[in-house]
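ingest -> validate -> predict -> emit
validate: passed (alphabet ok, no gaps, 559 aa)
predict: started
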Amino acid sequence: MRCTAGKRLLAYAELSSATSATPNWGCESLAFPEGRSLGCTIRREGEPLPHPARSRLPHQGDDERDIGLDAHRNHGWLPTNIAGQLMSNALRLADRHVEPTLLVHQRPSRITLAMRTMTIGFGLVLLVSGCGGSGGSGGGGDSDMDTISRVDRQRNGSGGIGTANAIRLGYDGRWAVFTSNAGDLVADDPTGLQDVFLKDRSTGQLRLISRAWNAIGRPVGNGTSSSPALSTEGEFVAFASEAGNLVADDDNGVSDIFVVDVLASTIERVSVNSDGTEANGASTACDLSQEGRYIVFQSAATNLVAGDSNASIDVFRHDRSTGITIRVSTTSDGDQKTGDSTAPSMNGAGYLVAFSSMAALVDGDVNTTATDVFVRDMTASTTTLASPQGAGTTHGADRPSGEACMAGDGAFLVYSSTRLDLIQFQDTAQGSSVFRYNVNSGELEIVSRAASGGPFITANAFAPRISGDGSLVVFHSADSRLVENDYGQQDVFLCEVDAQVTTRLSVNEHATPNNGPSGSADISRDGSTVGFLATGSVLPGGSDQQHAYAMPVVPTGGG
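emit:
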């Protein structure tokens, strides 16, 4: 018997332990879209681990009384950590001693045992009697994933009296990380400083992340935290912080980069050199690979790698598995150049890094007085200019390009630019446009274009973010020409690049446009969810303070 749920083809499974008061849940096999079958045993807490924690290797037990599951970060027992979740990509369970009940687990979710059945949260599909039952979002309570909702408040809708300044989403939008200076989101936040929070949008559970997880009492950070980044499944959160109490021996007095392991409830400082020495300059603006192994960041430090003498901010990548830190912002030959390199963005696997730089890192860089966008291939050791002179006029070639965002699969990146020489323009205004760059072919196309499909426009478009496959781009703009009936308020837009369709997203559930500025958007890797910041009273829970929102999106496909 086989069942289809979402995009996963799953085999029927059975409970192996018939009489045990503490059952070991198990199943016979698991079919993935990739054709792989992975297995490992889930045991109750306190029992021996069937395999090393965080193993990425397929594990098959001695018999068939195993659970088919991606071994990704499985700790081997029903979860009791702060995340309250079992990390896996797919999971099916059935009890042969009750009516056949199949659970389909598509994303990490809370799993609890109750009356010999399993209760599930959003992201799980409950099918009764094999394949013939009902499906649903579950939710276990307060799921906000089906409509636009405010992220920076408690599960019951209270709290969040403060300003949110950033939001980033996990793979499918279930997990959202944001910054806020609100002191009423959790009970033990006495500082009034900007902190980093992680929210499970399927349950409403909210956690303050920027705290000293390794210390007794887990005190909240004593400095401002910013620039959050999130791994695919929400198990790792990275951020920059000026706090000096998040880890032991933080004596440099400047901003550092930290990564919190949400499942293990630990924190580490990653803006260090390869022998663990702390940076002697401020480190900010980070991004995290999909599995949380690699983190890229910008730093003014001169001691993160040997021979750093360019007196410039550089981009670095730290490997959390090996502890090695290397400089990203170099020429293809590995040479350093003078000029600040900032705002790094990584593909999901962590080997392609896009960033902005004033440095002349490639031959033929005609823009020597403003930032360009570069792509560093860490595997091939090559650096490529992603904002080259194109078919347009050379007028405006000295204007900046930046705000790069790399697609998860590494095929595309997007960035904003005020240059007029990138492609042929018919509008020579002074504003910023959003472009999509094909990493493999070098093709460049404009994303921010008029609703009529008419002349290209410099739409004062900023802060682009791109979906995992590169087909969807979000950005903010105050230009009224992007959609019909737009009155020039700064809004968030979604562009379906191939279909050349642009939609305004900063509206409420009745499609009423927000009456305040909206911007700084992010899009989930699967393209299903957009998060953004907004001020105004039209959106749910809106006010004259800036809040964080998330909403589902359904591309039109140009139809």
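Residues 1-142, 391-395 have pLDDT under 50 and may be disordered.
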